[in-house]
């Protein structure tokens, strides 16, 4: 259990550090985390790396990547680390590689926030805790693979019945296709709110409001066309 | 990100509390955690609940269940909480229900520890970080559903390429069927070490040694027939 | 600041571990902590040491001592570590030395809980934050030295205006002398509640109730003669 | 012990937040912390307050003050909170008052880093852990009061045998007077390194290097006249 505790605390510290600089961090495989760090500069990444090394019995390597599509940025980031050596090389320690990019537009980051329709009444209160967890994991595994293969997006389960995806600009029709695919393949009905911004915090809040709009209007898809929530498309 | 941090730290504290009493805790949905608490008594569960309430802005409800099979124990535990009210009722706060059982035999808990064959060389060093994560999540979603439906076991992803399952006593043939099912359905090759004990720590360590045996002997399944590792079956 | 964070978190973990086994831990010099671990056995101390080593970039040495008086127990504990080598020897790492003692009587641990009379109205709301802190530190430095030299007790500042002392059985007259000494030397008026028990948690709660009694009755000293608060002496 | 754990963790989080923005935070009374936040703006302070409220069962009030001398800045900060109400008013919650100031010169913050001469050989390895702690607390109580009354500086014990003081620009003769006062009053010999900078991190590192210079040259006082350590005065 010490390893579980250690992973959780390292993640909590990374989430705090990046989160209070307007980025988002995801636990992913736990020995391998993914973060959206638009707005952080090289020095910020270096400080995080140093601070973890000072306070934990482990060190972290950081690859920084950018790209038009989320998966391209992630591939760039992964390459920065993989070219230095295998994950199990003793010599590959505390790599910090790659180039940060300044904020450019108010649409630098796009986030889609998915959740399960009526999760509490349909699953949490009906099924035992494990069976409702299976439903959500099945939906997640299906969504993450489909969104990555068809749309180059990255999806992360963030607790409860919530999945947050880093996405390129895709259309309402695309989201309809995605939701139908998950419904037919994993037999789970999702809804989604979409937002954008110059950093992850702005895009994420916009997406969260969009998801609230879905709940109020009982619709499946709502896209905030800009961070300030003035116009929107829906289904 | 504050919510992510909070969930991770609450889990880290629960993992420490239960872990240093020889139990195992799993993050599961994060708003809903599952633990194997054989060996903890009612007062231990109460102390954990009180300590979380004292130090976090949230409270926890705990349902305690027992059963011949893992899923039966979990259903019992879930029922203890669900009968009090919906997860979203304001009045359902800090429930502590159910009855603990003393350690009875040296086989009270059975644990199967799965990992992915050659995960580092085949995935971590070859694919980008997200694509190797997809592979593992797909294996996990497949394994958790199959093991639950066919064998009444509970599986939890614990980071890296590791999945820990709480299982009833099943045979080497059963594990072979499970591994083949995951290989054909999710296209991922797993191996598994199995151990038992009077509590989760004992069973978990036995399972971990069994998995090491698989690595050394290049076999797919190893069952430690008892906690002290004297006899074993393999494939 | 990383070192401050590390010290605080290591202490928080030690306080949780020992606290939920009915002991008390004190930060002291931060690189050197003191705990009352009546009721914990050798294995408990070993588990704490191992768990810190697993999760932090530092290791801890633990000396365990017992004695009729608190200072004798502490000297025993310190000797266990000092005989192994200097605090700056590279080779002195993860020492675990000394012998635990089982709970014997309901009076094994005696705790005196001091606070400053009317601290909020007289200092916190009147003086700036630093000047009220000076007052409390002056009272603490005076009390800790006097109680140690005259009565062999150990005092620890625990935040706010609270000082917790591990004491031998001393009389109401002794406490009166102590309070007068601090009043004349440091110009701060203290009150004190005293309790005993078979472990630190029991004695500490009894002392806390005794201090509440002082507040209600507007008296300076209250001694709970037993853990269950049946009889008491006061001034 | 839950309260001790909570205080330590809240402090650890504040220390991390402020520390990785180049400020310094001190535990002080634990229910009342002091930080040097030169370089942080109003929004930073607000974010810290919000983040603590989101993750702990307590909220924090923040008063921000500035001044030519450290004590003046602290009085300003305290006033911002005290004018809103007593520390025990239910209505005084999450105050955020006062005005931040931008970095102005490379000498905005001056830090003096004191430690005890030969602490390990003279005290830690000779005395029991509590008696060496008494020595350090006595030195601290004496220094903090003298430096505040005579020189308007603020001193904080930061663990081990280290005291960090926020000071105005005072001379080598002043430091000589301070060290002699502590030696004659508390019978403890200190040495001190002094540094300045546009923020606490810069001044603190400069002071730390100055203290290292004292150790190497076996002198009692070393002042780095600028953050980049080009010239210096010594005794």
**How many helices of chain A?**
7
Shape of chain A: globular
Catalogue the unreliable spans of chain A: 227-235
The main pleated sheet of chain A reads as: 6 strands, mixed
- Helicity range of the residues of chain A? 40-55%
Could you describe the 3D structure shown?
The structure is a homotetramer. Chain A has helices spanning about 1-20, 40-55, 70-80, 120-125, 130-150, 170-185, 200-215; strands spanning about 25, 35, 60-65, 95-100, 110-115, 155, 160-165, 190-195, 220-225, 230-235. In chain A, helix 5 (about 130-150) packs across helix 6. Residues about 225-235 of chain A have low confidence and may be disordered. In chain A, the strands form 3 sheets. A 6-stranded mixed beta sheet of chain A has the order 6-7-5-8-9-10. The longest helix of chain A is centred in the middle third of the chain and has 23 residues, at about 130-150. Chain A folds into 2 domains: about 1-100, Nucleotide cyclase, GGDEF domain (Alpha-Beta Plaits, 2-Layer Sandwich); about 110-235, Alpha-Beta Plaits (2-Layer Sandwich), CATH 3.30.70.270. Chain A is about 45% helix and about 20% strand. Chain A is of the alpha+beta class and about 240 residues long. Chains C and D meet through helix 1, helix 3, helix 4 and helix 5 of C and helix 1, helix 3, helix 4 and helix 5 of D.
């Amino acid at each position: 259990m010490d390893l579980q505790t250690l992973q959780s605390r390292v993640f909590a510290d990374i989430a705090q550090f990046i989160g209070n600089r307007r980025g988002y961090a995801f636990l992913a495989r736990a020995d391998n985390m993914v973060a959206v760090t638009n707005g952080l500069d090289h020095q910020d990444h270096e400080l995080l790396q140093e601070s973890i090394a000072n306070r934990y019995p482990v060190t972290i390597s950081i690859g920084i990547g950018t790209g038009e599509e989320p998966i391209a940025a992630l591939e760039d980031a992964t390459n920065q680390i993989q070219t230095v050596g295998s994950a199990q090389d003793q010599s590959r320690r505390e790599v910090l590689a790659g180039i940060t990019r300044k904020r450019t537009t108010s649409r630098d980051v796009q986030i889609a926030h998915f959740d399960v329709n009526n999760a509490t009444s349909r699953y949490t209160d009906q099924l035992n805790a494990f069976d409702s967890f299976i439903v959500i994991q099945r939906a997640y595994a299906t969504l993450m693979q489909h969104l990555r293969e068809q749309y180059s997006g990255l999806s992360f389960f963030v607790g409860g019945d919530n999945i947050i995806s880093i996405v390129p600009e895709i259309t309402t029709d695309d989201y309809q296709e995605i939701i139908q695919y998950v419904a037919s393949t994993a037999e789970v009905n999702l809804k989604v709110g979409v937002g954008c911004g110059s950093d992850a915090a702005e895009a994420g809040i916009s997406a969260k409001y969009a998801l609230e709009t879905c709940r109020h209007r009982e619709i499946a898809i709502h896209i905030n066309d800009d961070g300030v929530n003035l116009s929107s498309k829906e289904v």
